[in-house]
Amino acid sequence: GGHTTEILRLLSCLSESYCPRHYVLADSDKMSEAKIHSFEQKRAETFSSSQFTLDRIPRSREVRQSWTTSVVTTLYSILYSLPLIYKLKPDLILCNGPGTCVPVCISAFLLGLLSMKRATIVYVESICRVETLSLSGKILYYFSDYFIVQWPALKEKYPKSVYLGRIV
């Protein structure tokens, strides 16, 4: 959906040194997989050494899922993400808001606390978030190394954030 489109726009600006790229999707997300394959196919035309993987984790929260049950499903997703993040050992996690990014970032944060592997977490709040943060943003504001917003009103409310203007 929209999050995938935004993140692929960001990735299109990165050099070929950001390779391999590991995409983590919710297990029920079919639309994003097709967009990623299309994006990577076009990228391979420019950068011949382009490498990427797709991994799936359980969705942490469904649309309209109750807050109580979403805590349980998010914990399950974190437990599923921990071995994946340990295996991938990313240097950088770039994410932009779908609920799937929360378990991935928390897993990376926990592995960093345990001195297993420290990943830099960069969270980019969606451009549609003008006055308030998304739920993912509210959570990852405390776990991210860089928290980027695309509207000055958000920078005023969240002093840790970085305002760069519209970047997608």
How many discrete domains? 1
Radius of gyration: 16 Å
Q: In the CATH scheme, what's the topology name?
A: Rossmann fold
**SS-based structural class?**
alpha/beta
- Kindly report the spatial arrangement of strands forming the biggest sheet: 3-4-5-6
Q: Using DSSP, what is the number of strands?
A: 6
pLDDT below 50 for ≥5 consecutive residues: which ranges? none
Mean pLDDT: 91
Q: What is the percent of helical residues?
A: 40-55%
N-to-C SSE series? HEHEHEHEHEHE
Described by strand count, sense and barrel closure, the largest sheet is: 4 strands, parallel
The number of helical segments is 6
The dominant shape is: globular
Amino-to-carboxy terminus distance: 14 Å
CATH architecture: 3-Layer(aba) Sandwich
List the helices and strands and how they pair.
Layout: H1 2-11, E1 21-26, H2 31-46, E2 52-57, H3 67-88, E3 92-95, H4 101-113, E4 120-124, H5 135-140, E5 146-149, H6 152-157, E6 162-163
Parallel strand pairs: 1-2, 3-4, 4-5, 5-6
